[in-house]
Protein 1
Amino acid sequence: MTADTDVEQSKMLVIGKDVLADGVVAVRLADPDGGRIPAWEAGSHIDIIIDESTVRQYSLCGDPADDTCLTIAVLREEDGRGGSRWVHDTLQVGDLVSIAGPRNNFTFEAADSYLFVAGGIGITPLLPMMRAAHDAGAQWRLLYGGRSRASMAFAAELSDRYEDRIALRPQDEYGLLDLASALDSMPDGTHVYCCGPEPLLQAIEALCREREGLVLHVERFAAKAIPVDALDDTFEVELHRSGSTITVGADETLLDAVLRSGVDTPFSCREGTCGTCEVAVVEGVPDHRDSVLTEDEQAANDCMMICVSRSCTSRLTLDL
Ligand SMILES: Cc1cc2nc3c(=O)[nH]c(=O)nc-3n(C[C@H](O)[C@H](O)[C@H](O)COP(=O)(O)OP(=O)(O)OC[C@H]3O[C@@H](n4cnc5c(N)ncnc54)[C@H](O)[C@@H]3O)c2cc1C
């Protein structure tokens, strides 16, 4: 099954590829005809469409005001299924590459104070946010961890540009990030934006649950593990707009059942991380298994990611 092809897909020309740090390359993409690139905001990512079954998401880490090129930075994941290795080993300057998006699940909200917390390649979506916070005159700090100094992309550039707002904390020099002290040092009303590996995200989520007055936003690059304590059941889904009702089998996803019924709907990662397949819920209670919606958004039960989520009720009605 291929990723949906109707969502703002375009061909881009690779105009630059540079090593930024150990295992990290930056890739710059421009319109092949010299036109403007699509508008985007801090927190956005694009899909890189490697082939029909391999689509990977990459955060835009350049300047949204630059309408001539999109920049991504990609960490080589040696143990992965090959998406990042393809970017490192195969994609070259002068190639054309298909992209979809930009799309944004990590919206940058206006505030007086920000704490940015990055783990490794999780620095990418935070770069345009720091620029925006700085330009707006907000109070802000970055706590940035990584395995070693040499593995931390953009570290030197950030230190040069923002000096004492930046705390670089390579793990081989400092150990794990001191999240508690960083959070305690920020005033009430601070928006905390965090992106990095799952243990970092879980630690900051736990600490922020205990601290009223901080507003936490996280972005997951990989799906979080969802404990499923029973076998999946079949359930019925009424497709409100198309007027049909389908049965989702215990061994298939809701997305596959929808596509099987002939209804075309966008999707991409199939892991609940990219947000492309979001659908509004008209009636019923979803069993949320995605890594995109916040706890509050999941509790509202008014939308769901149909690539991984299922149903708590025997019937759901979706705006499809
Ligand atoms: C919104 C968003 C933004 C992103 N932005 C960036 C970015 O700016 N830069 C960046 O480098 N990446 C980013 N990513 C991650 C990126 O999309 C890819 O997931 C990443 O490049 C790895 O792809 P891959 O095919 O090499 O590895 P994948 O196959 O995706 O594997 C990633 C890791 O998961 C583990 N894994 C893989 N398959 C399995 C399996 N079957 N069972 C258990 N573990 C497994 C492996 O340990 C591997 O290291 C982003 C992801 C999202 C959702």
Protein 2
Amino acid sequence: MHKIVQYRNKCIGCAVCFEQQPEFWRMSKKDGKATLIKGVGKKNVFILTIPDKSVIKARKIAETCPVRIIKVL
Ligand code: SF4
């Protein structure tokens, strides 16, 4: 198992993560930022455990995020 980590406060709401992996992401109607579905966290750091089969795509998204606030561990 792997983890997606998002430093949410710096999200600019470009929606790349949501478009590429909608099973893990949604766009908040409240503030326009991406939110990890069922992600756990506090303050502005959110973590979601993902299955191995999703890791390669998640890593590509992390590289594509324009503000580099997604990490895949
Ligand atoms: S790719 Fe990055 S900046 Fe764009 S919505 Fe996702 S977390 Fe936010």
